[in-house]
Amino acid sequence: MDIFILICLLAVIILIINNKIEPPLAFLGLLVFYFLLDLISVKDLLGSFVNKSIIILTLLIIIADIIARTQITSFLSKLIGIRKRNLFGIGIFVSLLSSFLSNTLVVQMFIKLLDKKEFKSKLLLPVSYAAILGGTATVIGTSTNLIANGFLADMGLRPFNFLDFAYVGIPLVVAGLLYLTLCSKKVLKHKENDNIDESWNYFLEARVLKNSGLINKTVLENKLRRLESLFLAEIIRNNRLISPVTPSEIILEDDVLVFTGDVENIKDLKKFDGIEIFREKSDILNQNLVWCVLSHNSELIGGKIKDCDFRKRFNAAIVAIKREGENLRHKIGEISLKTGDHLILAVGENFVPTREIKNNFYLLDELETVEKFDTKNSIFIFISFILVIILSALNIISLLKGLFVLLFLYLFKGYISFNNVIKNTNLNIIILLGSALGISKVLVSNGASDIISDFIINISRVIGVYGTFVVIYLLSVVLTEFTLNASAVAIALPIAYLTAISLNVSPLPFIFAVTYGSSASFLTKFGYQTNMLVSAAGKYKLKDFIKLGLPLSIIYSIIVLTLVPLFFRF
Q1: Residue 443 and which of 5, 466, 498, 539 are 20 to 30 A apart at CA?
Q2: Quick check: 70 pLDDT over 90?
């Protein structure tokens, strides 16, 4: 049975790597399958989803959404001021914030801080790497650390203290930022003049002239939905933007029809009489554009846009799609979406970042779509959050209790409603992490991990305990580059734990090897959400990640493999 358990897990990993199934669904399906085979009890299965660390992570996500609506971005913008090009200074801010806030949120905020002239690929990838580095410094800095903390509790071991990760995390931040400051501009200098302000390239406009046959007919009647390579996304009428356009919208004289898709190909429009085709940079077309990245967890992955009822479902129309830094020019409706695709959306007036939108996309413009708190309330929110973090770090109050108190305080003050608490609860993350912890229990309790750990132990007879520690670390690094970081830590943790027990040494250094290794996603865009956020915006390709990320990965690995055994003895 133990071999069968591993074969099932391997099959799921292959499906995730090949984007054949969403990670939350894959892990949940595998856990339920194990349950049906009586490999895990009801108590352990349900207990995996109410794990303390998952509850803490859920509370942090909800509170982070409140913090995102404060004036923190304006405050940081003033702090950075004219020194925006100081990469080390930006890195310090990013690392500091990401040590106790969601790394994804932090990168979103700093993308907004960089003005159009500085929205360049020489800055975006270093910002992503700085967020990853900052997340390694505290127990709440990244989901991998929290998963490991939950695993320790499940195994009956002492959970991490708040600052246990600082001993290695702070040197990682300092060394990583020094490297990025000295080398990133040289490595990415070929992209120095790139700029993402290319929205005028995405549109083709056609004015409806007097006596046109389109007038007083609907979009559907005019067959504007059946164009071969263009898509009617918006209409400008009396200097007002109608977006998205429904099939029942009636065309009027002087309307400006705004098309997206293959805007270099105008043959689709030549069959219509009484229209004037032109292209110019119109400010009104930029007013409702939202940039987003298709997430790992999106249920849209692999499906064609025309089949997902995108316009009705998200109150938005897709203006353009970028993949690997290149615009996809063919008919938008026929494009099959992939993880990491960068979408530019023309959104309706009532567009809000609902839970469904957040589950499918990482929004680069999210911070502009919600109303901000005033300065007084922003200061109160931020200081109260920092106070809870400090009290928790000093062991005066548990982090879980502090976050619950904070959430109810914010509810009482009206900063968030209970309905929004429910909406902002990310079920995908809860399902993914809970399933991952449940699978870890199956691997440990049924001896499946023993097969792998026995193999590693046989190797350790040649390379020793330290060599085995290195192998566990490298296994985690490889897993995180090809699957999610959460998936990597869930797979590697039971292996690391059982290996340490079999070697009769402390499991703590091996657990740290997994947590740091699972955060070391510097070589691809798929291992970490922040890499995906900046990938399309910065027009990064695989070679960019390797050129800048490989030396950083080597520096990172040397520090981890040196300091972890120094501070946490075998």
Answers
A1: 466
A2: no
